[in-house]
Structure formats: structure tokens, C-alpha cells
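Recap from last week: sequence in, structure out.
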Amino acid sequence: MSCEINCRTRERRWRAAQLLGWATLQGRVLQPFGPAKLVLQACENMHRDELTLGEYATTVVRLVDAGLPIGAVAKALGRR
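Predicted C-alpha cells:
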């Protein structure tokens, strides 16, 4: 299996598929821009790692600074 594009998200899934010997892995190519790119990065980090309260707060502030309303940030992060 080879990854011909720069895998920015879901790298752990790709590595797990390699360990299992899978020849293919379904995926989507997205070209997010602006706040959407930050939301994808934030969601990936929050699901991958146990963030400290400070790291979580920093992520929320980055999204708000990028122009997202606080309600949209909460919804995007699954924190209605």
C-alpha cells in the first residue's frame, strides 16, 4: 500500500491498515480552506489525544479568532 497524497488526517487509520496488510483503504480528498481547515485539524487532535483543559481552550480560541461564532465552534466540536 502506498499513500500518494499528503495524509493530513486519519494517518493512524492508514498505519493500522498497513499493519493489517490491507491493500486498499477508502478515503476522501478534501480541500478545506479558512476556518473549515482549522475545524478538521481540531477534531482530529481532540479525537486522537487526551487534551488538557488549556490545550482545549487554546483550540476553541483559535477557532473563534478564525471567525467562527462560539455556537458553531461548540457544534463543530460536538459540544452543543
